[in-house]
Specification:
mainly beta; 509 residues; twelve-stranded parallel beta sheet; 22-stranded parallel beta sheet; Pectin_lyase_fold/virulence
């Protein structure tokens, strides 16, 4: 009798162990079991989507993409799904545009995910956008039109005698954002690599609670609009330990509710707040970090730390062109290197640029409470702060900084200008300007403390005016700052001030 009972117990234990193993197995859905081909040539969207859908029907789990190349159109993730790359796995975006879903008026790319919770893409794999196949390879897009009436070089602006210079190339028809998360919660992106997106690589829009970690984006630097990570009208976001090299803005934080019919935008009124970016390396042909633009949702409480920006057209670009404003931004421990580029990229070598000017008929919102500490800039243009007379830029401070300004090898075709595009004010789009180390106009409560300002070798152009130039500023404090006159204007004062009130100047040679 005891032996029968023992046998029954052992049988039950074995059954429970089998059920446990079976349950564990069912939580992982291998795309190869659904007929996905890993040859990189057979379109395999449908079997991968079947694995995703079955995973969702089972209550969630892991969709596994084993090592190999998988040609796809648009895939849709759902709640409680982890899409996991095995090391060496690669999704390849098909060049057949009929395989992509249209959301709003434009085509989404490889992933379009909407209204999902607890969803992630993980693992040491790759998403390859084949961006160069959506480009005309032989001619670069150049700046043209009335904007050339206001720049120093006129029609010779950014002229290239042969080849394509820094691009950008002219695009063919293409899908738009390659990875879209719209109106989702608890999203995680980690460890994978994106290459050669033909348009923005990511848009994460109207989302809450986002984690991005150890993500790598390596877009071709001559592809236009190839942003890295655009986080729009989202809150409670952490981005860390990433490398982004992009033919347009590397990181964008903004408050749009709509963007020219692009996928994912739903005209939702939702603030963008509580975002932390840390331990990242960035390169861009436009702005390495861009905050704001045509914004309808307010933006606040952003923190940036331990950031390296190199070989970029503009370093940090904070700009308002619509009615929503920006406030409470902290930057600490940044190394910024910017230079002039050829081609129709936005930016002109500014390491830090803060501007408020009309982009539409509305008066732009305010930019307030922006703090920089432990900042090093090695650049070919000014740290630049500009507010149109009807706009508000106030409470901006720089502490523990080292600004060095040098003359560019492209100075003859691009130097002595500031690029504030986009704006609806024609004479302020791209225009001739003096190039001091630090320029501020129409702002309020600007503070510079405990820093150095220096010049590179061979400064010859007369528009390199002075360490500081201030126009119509209300309350400018300069304390414990060391600087020297411009080598091109050695008899000029260290601070050129016009129309300013409450100027406290303690700058020293």
């Amino acid at each position: 009798m005891k032996n029968i009972q023992l046998t029954h117990i052992l049988t039950m234990l074995s059954l429970l162990m089998f059920m446990g193993c079976s349950s564990s197995t069912k939580s992982e859905f291998n795309v190869l079991d659904y007929g996905a081909k890993s040859d990189g040539q057979t379109l395999t969207t449908a079997p991968i989507q079947s694995a995703i859908d079955d995973c969702s029907k089972a209550g969630g789990g892991v969709v596994l993409l084993p090592k190999g190349d998988y040609l796809v159109g648009t895939l849709n993730l759902h709640s409680n799904i982890e899409f996991r790359f095995e090391t060496g796995a690669r999704l390849i975006a098909t060049t057949d545009l009929t395989q992509y879903q249209r959301h709003n008026t434009e085509l989404a790319g490889v992933f379009y995910t909407e209204k999902a919770d607890n969803v992630s893409i993980t693992g040491k794999g790759t998403i390859f956008g084949q961006g160069m196949k959506f480009m005309y390879p032989d001619s670069a897009k150049v700046i043209s039109g009335s904007v050339l009436d206001y720049v120093r070089q006129g029609k010779n602006l950014r002229k290239v005698n042969s080849g394509i210079g820094d691009g950008p190339l002219y695009p063919k028809d293409r899908f738009h954002q390659m990875i879209v998360f719209s109106n989702c919660t608890n999203v995680e992106l980690s460890d994978f690599t994106c290459i050669d997106s033909p348009y923005w690589c990511f848009v994460i829009v109207h989302c809450d609670r986002i984690t991005v970690r150890n993500l790598k984006i390596d877009n071709n630097l001559v592809i236009p609009n190839s942003d890295g990570l655009d986080i729009i009208s989202c809150s409670n976001v952490n981005v860390s330990d990433c490398y982004f090299s992009c033919g347009d803005d590397a990181i964008v934080l903004a408050g749009y509710d709509w963007h020219f019919g692009d996928p994912g935008f739903q005209r939702i009124t939702r603030p963008s707040k509580n975002i932390n970016i840390s331990n990242c390396i960035l390169r861009s042909r436009s702005s390495a970090i861009r905050i704001g633009g045509w914004d309808q949702n307010v933006m606040s409480n952003y923190n940036f730390s331990n950031i390296t920006i190199f070989d970029s057209n503009c370093g940090i670009n904070i700009n308002i062109r619509d009615y929503a404003g920006i406030e409470n931004i902290n930057f600490t421990n940044l190394n910024i290197e910017t230079r002039l580029h050829t081609g129709d990229w936005w930016g002109n070598g500014e390491p830090i640029k803060i501007s408020a000017i009309r982009g539409r008929d509305t008066i732009p919102g305010a930019i307030r409470n922006v703090h920089f500490s432990n900042i090093t800039c090695n650049s070919e243009n000014s740290v630049y702060i500009y507010a149109a007379p009807e706009c508000t830029v106030e409470n901006i401070d720089f502490t523990n900084f080292d600004f060095q300004l040098k003359q560019s090898q492209l100075d003859q075709i691009g130097g002595g200008n500031i690029d504030l595009r986009p704006t609806s004010v024609p004479e302020k789009e791209f225009y001739a300007s003096n190039t001091p180390i630090f320029y501020v106009e129409n702002a309020k409560n600007i503070r510079l403390s405990n820093g150095t300002m220096s010049w590179g070798d061979n400064i010859t152009q007369p528009y390199f005016t002075a360490p500081v130039e201030a126009i119509d500023v209300n309350t400018l404090s300069i304390d414990r700052v060391t600087a020297s006159p411009s080598p091109a204007n050695p008899s000029a004062p260290l601070v050129i001030a016009k129309g300013c009130t409450n100027l406290e100047n303690h700058i020293n040679k």
